[in-house]
Amino acid sequence: MVWRPSLGKWYALLSTKAYAPAQARIHHWGASGDKPMVGRMDADAYDELIVWRPSLGKWYVLRSWNGYSAAGALYYVWGAAGDIPM
């Protein structure tokens, strides 16, 4: 998986598509200045796309269970400007 901060886009190569770059799944999630992370935030077996926006002290989570739709996204206020996400 790759996150391109200049565009705020995630690119994922899929095993079901033989990892073909032309078949990559693309998700627009994040903005310039965000810090990307991937992790499991719920009980399913799939990673969520996460960005930490240090300027606002907010985490934005795009969840896997609904096909990474922004309609089911979450955000959390946790931290402050200058914090380092882990």
Radius of gyration, rounded? 13 Å
The tally of strands reads: 7
Provide the helix percentage.
under 10%
Q: What does the average pLDDT come to?
A: 83
- Strand order of the main beta sheet, please? 4-5-6-7
Report on this model:
The protein has strands at 2-4, 9-12, 25-28, 35-39, 48-53, 58-62, 74-77. The chain has one domain (2-77). It is globular. It is built from no helices and seven strands. The strands form two sheets. Strands 4-5-6-7 form a four-stranded antiparallel β-sheet, with no helix packed on it. Strands 1-2-3 form a three-stranded antiparallel β-sheet, with no helix packed on it. The model has no long low-confidence stretch (mean pLDDT 83). 0% of the residues lie in helices and 36% in strands. The chain is mainly beta and 86 residues long.
Question: Which features does this protein show?
Answer:
mainly beta, 86 residues, four-stranded antiparallel beta sheet
